[in-house]
Structure formats: structure tokens, C-alpha cells
Design brief:
CATH architecture of the largest domain: 3-Layer(bba) Sandwich
Structural class: alpha/beta
Number of domains: 2
Keywords: Flavoprotein, Oxidoreductase
Distance between the termini: 38 Å
CATH superfamily of the largest domain: FAD/NAD(P)-binding domain
Strand content: 25-35%
Number of helices: 8
Largest sheet: 7 strands, mixed
GO molecular function, one term: thioredoxin-disulfide reductase (NADPH) activity
Radius of gyration: 26 Å
Oligomer: single chain
Pfam families: Pyr_redox_2
Order of helices and strands: EHEHEEEEEEHEHEHEEEEEEHEEEHH
InterPro entries: FAD/NAD-bd_sf, FAD/NAD-binding_dom, Ferredoxin-NADP_redctase_2
Protein name: Thioredoxin reductase
Length: 322
């Protein structure tokens, strides 16, 4: 049976960062990851100091190599459930994998990320991460000064369009299924953002590029890239099953003793560099907790504990003699 000080669930920026800190602290660490990172469709990641423009796959490969270089174990798979093993007042967990594998851990870090739920528009998902984009801080500079579109749908998309105007003078807001208020129209117009009425029916793809956006009014508009605000759905099922709620946003400590959480699973707005920092902060706090436990285990019995053990041994001896 595999026993670890810490099992990290999720091998993205948050999980690998936590694992790196913990392995360097000489803890026995396993990282369980299914190999389906959120940013896999993107060719490059940006805004990460010293790693700007690095392909996400290369970033994760480098992180895995660093963790294994310090003795960490990488396990490909998914976690089915996490259950406490220790009595009340202590910590310890069984981490069961979908393939039936079982790991024991003194502590757990949940860094399972999130998924982007996209509008159901034909062609949109196929271009996700390429010329259908979400984060202007991640991709805005690469499409600067080009004709850009923003897909409407909620009040937040209006703010998204106003933000994206920072990168281009040519921005079109596709109202889609959203009814703009007079104030929103005024704000968009004041910033020189064109309002395109009508519902978007599909994306027109020519070869391997976005060639246009088709509307229900039989018209086609052709921006260079389309920005979309997906619904961010945290992959927090393991935390929910444990009834774990983050009680310290700074460290990711939850109200379940022995469980920490980091990255997009608990902070959907976190970018790669933010998630990595959260993983590091969680690992430092977690290791301090393990040190406290190690110290308590090393302390000699108190007089009261010695009397309690003596009483237990006496009762066992008496029962045996009977």
C-alpha cells in the first residue's frame, strides 16, 4: 500500500507548485493527475514572469520533472473519493483512484482546477484557445490592433468588451441573446465599440482560422478573434464530498483538518501564475501543520497519559487472567 505525507490531487500549476515546495521540504509526496489541463488548447501562456510565451505543455512537463527530481511521485489517473481514516482529533486520509488504486496520506491538497462551459454555438468550441479567446491579459497583446469581437449574453460581457477595447480600436460587441440597457449602449458607444444586433448562429471556419461570425439576419461579420466569457465551473466535487470549505484564502486551509485547496478549484479567476503562488502558500502552511504533528508525536508522555496507558494495560492483563 502506498503511504505518503501528502497526496496532491491535480497536476496543474497549483498542484505542481505545492508538490515542489513539499518535496523540497523532504516530504513524501504523490501527485495524481488525469492529464487534461484546462489550458491545453492554447499554444502559449502569458503573464508568467520568466515563462512568458511558453507552451503550456512544456511548462507542465518542466514542473513534473522538477517534482520528480526531488523524489515526488507522479501518478496518472483520477481520484474517485477521499475519506478520513484517523479518529476524531487526528488526521489521515484514504485516497481511492478510479482504477481501484489506494493511497494513504497524512494530508491532502485538492488542486483539481475547473472547466470552461462555452455557449452552444456551432464552431465555437473547435476554435477555443486559438482565435476564440477568454482572457485579454493572456491573449490580448497577441491580437492587438486587429478587428476583435466580443460575444454578448450577460451584463458581464459588456464589461468584457470595454476591457478588450484596451487592445484594439476596432471592437464589435455581438449582442447575441442579450438585451442591452440604454446605459450599456451609451457606454459601449462612448468607447467606440460597434454594437452588432442579432443572434450568433455559427462561426464560419476557413481552413484553420476564424473567417467570420454568422448571424440569424443572414449577415456575416469577420473579426480576427472573438472573445467569449465562458461559465467557469470549478472541479470541486472532492471538496464538496468532504464538506470542505476554505476558511483561510491566504493559505487554502479548509475547515476539514488535513485538507488544503488551491488554484482554480477554489479561485476560478486565478491565472497560471496566481494558481502557482496559491499552491506554494498552501504547501508552506501544510508543512508547518505536519511539523506540529511531528513534534507532538516526539514528545514524551505526560503523567496523565502514562496513567491512562497503565490503566489500559492493567485492564487488558486482568481480562486475560480471568
Amino acid at each position: 500500500m502506498n503511504e505518503y505525507d501528502v497526496v496532491v490531487v491535480g497536476g496543474g500549476a497549483a498542484g505542481l507548485s505545492a508538490a515542489l515546495v513539499l518535496t523540497r521540504a523532504r516530504r513524501r509526496v504523490a501527485v495524481i493527475d488525469a492529464g487534461r489541463p484546462r489550458n491545453a488548447p492554447a499554444a502559449h501562456m502569458h503573464g508568467y514572469l520568466s515563462r512568458d510565451g511558453m507552451p503550456p505543455a512544456d511548462f507542465l512537463a518542466a514542473g513534473r520533472a522538477e517534482v520528480t527530481g526531488y523524489g515526488g511521485h507522479m501518478i496518472t489517473g483520477t481520484v474517485r473519493e477521499i475519506t478520513p481514516t484517523a479518529p476524531a482529533g487526528d488526521t489521515g486520509f484514504r485516497v481511492r483512484l478510479a482504477d481501484g488504486g489506494l493511497l494513504l496520506a497524512r494530508r491532502v491538497v485538492v488542486a483539481t482546477g475547473l472547466r470552461d462551459e462555452l455557449p452552444d454555438i456551432p464552431g465555437l468550441a473547435d476554435r477555443w484557445g486559438r482565435d476564440v479567446l477568454h482572457c485579454p491579459y493572456c491573449h490580448g497583446y497577441e491580437v492587438r490592433d486587429r478587428p476583435l469581437g466580443v460575444l454578448g449574453g450577460t451584463p458581464e460581457t459588456v464589461g468584457h468588451a470595454l476591457l478588450i477595447r484596451q487592445w484594439s480600436d476596432d471592437v464589435a460587441f455581438f449582442s447575441h441573446a442579450y438585451e442591452l440597457t440604454a446605459d450599456e449602449r451609451q457606454r459601449l458607444t462612448a468607447r467606440g465599440i460597434r454594437i452588432v444586433e442579432g443572434a450568433v448562429t455559427r462561426l464560419v471556419i476557413d481552413g484553420d482560422r476564424l473567417a467570420g461570425i454568422e448571424l440569424d439576419r443572414a449577415s456575416v461579420v469577420a473579426p480576427h478573434a472573438l472573445f467569449v466569457r465562458p461559465r467557469l465551473v470549478p472541479a470541486d466535487g472532492l471538496l464538496t464530498a468532504l464538506n470542505a470549505v476554505v476558511v483561510d484564502a491566504r493559505t487554502g486551509r479548509t475547515d476539514v483538518p488535513g485538507v488544503w485547496a488551491a488554484g482554480n478549484a477554489v479561485d476560478p479567476r486565478a491565472q497560471v501564475i496566481t494558481a502557482a503562488g496559491a499552491g506554494s502558500a498552501a504547501a508552506i502552511d501544510l508543512n508547518a501543520d505536519l511539523v506540529d504533528e511531528d513534534v507532538r508525536a516526539a514528545l514524551p508522555f505526560s503523567a496523565a497519559q502514562e496513567r491512562e496507558v497503565a490503566a489500559i494495560l492493567a485492564s487488558v492483563t486482568f481480562a486475560h487472567q480471568e
